Amino acid sequence: MGALNEGHFLVELENGVKLNCVEPELEEEPETLAIQNAVRVLLQGLNEDINREGLKKTPLRVAKALLHGTKGYKQRANDIVHSALFPEAGLNNAVGHAGGAGGLVIVRDIDLFSYCESCLLPFQIKCHVGYVPSGQRVVGLSKLSRVADVFARRLQDPQRLADEICSALQHGIKPAGAAIVLQCLHIHFPNLESFVLDSSHQGWVKALVRSGSGVFENENADLWCDFLNLLKFRGVNVDKIQMTDATEQCWCPSQSSSSAKLSSMVRSPNQGMVTAVTSILMSLGEDPLRKELIETPSRFVKWLMNFHNTKLENGFGRADPLEASGDISHDREQMHSELNLSFWSQCEHHLLPFYGVVHIGYFCAEGSKPIERDFLQSIVHSYGFKLQVQERLTRQIAETVSSYLGGDVMVVVEADHTCMISRGIEKFGSNTATIAVLGRFSIDPAARAIFLQSIPKTTTT
């Protein structure tokens, strides 16, 4: 490809480059407008200025993301399957199964996401789909993924999602049997009070479920053994897979006993915000009176209020001053670091979570007592629990730590962003790193290199 003409490039920058494929008419659709109005109510309930630069287009971005993430309500799985059925003869005059006559077909490791019907937070899915062809016909392999995606793009819980995918394939392909295994990962987003009360907070809830039809209806069927053995190659712990009757209680963290206890400590949610979330559910094509959704608006608002815009005049607690003073030479200074300080935050552009770890490096006089980890953690959480962007979060942490330590500070933030998987870009596994350097770190490449090399290999998920 040739280089982009510089003049053309500057014109694009000035006029704005269209990076999405959403039709302009979508912005004027009643559903889009209704969701935008609801999001403005939510932002005002968080004590935010809806005309602030970073929030001006948030209502539209949220509306587009939600409508894209729940487009399965407007899709029909049968239409997808029937467009891709192909004749395929099986074995002739032989004992066994193959091709279109009973040979097991599996598509593994399909990355999906869905919105949890209990709390409206997105959850990640690794989907494994299998079926046994019959009638000497097979289905295009990509269609198995597309059918799974149709049902994932609705408000869901793991077991119902597995059952709906399985049922759709059974009725659409008419195979000898269909089988689904889902590995689901739901973020357990703490509030500030729960983190203070429970330092062992676990950031994730996992579910491993399966569903079968036809020859897979019996969970002890030989074909299930073949299916699950093939999943072992992909690192799936098949011993933990649950069937429908083993998942009576909801997996969502918002309905756990600890969350319920903490919720009882929180005042009743703003009724205007609850009504706004109810209108969002209706705009997506859902019935807010469906029993699984009745409490969802209140749960979402209680969670969202973790990011209420508050001032930080009260500080972050008490930090013992370091013994270093301005006349200490660099030869008598040493580098200290605090690594893997956890954080959770909320993207102000899409109202979706991002989360990860913070690493802080600083210089202080040799022999002086390093600043306490709990104090640095409190700074991280104080800036995390608000509507944020990662670049600003990194800068704010660095500037605040610098004000206590005297200037020589480096901060690295590593984060996973939910908006990278639950919007049009859908880049699973991506991770964002940002850096802030102040004082000596800004002019000393060797110091930066030493600190960066001290950061362990991490996986924020």
TrEMBL record:
EC number: 3.5.4.16
Domain GTP cyclohydrolase I: 35-187, 275-455
Any one cellular-component term (Gene Ontology): cytoplasm
Chain segments annotated as transmembrane: none
Molecular function, one GO term: GTP cyclohydrolase I activity
Keywords, alphabetical: GTP-binding, Hydrolase, Metal-binding, Nucleotide-binding, Tetrahydrobiopterin biosynthesis, Zinc
Role of this protein: GTP cyclohydrolase 1 is the first enzyme in the biosynthetic pathway leading to folic acid.
Subunit-level organization: Homodimer.
Protein name per its UniProtKB record: GTP cyclohydrolase 1
Organism: Jatropha curcas
Upper taxonomic lineage: Eukaryota, Viridiplantae, Streptophyta, Embryophyta, Tracheophyta
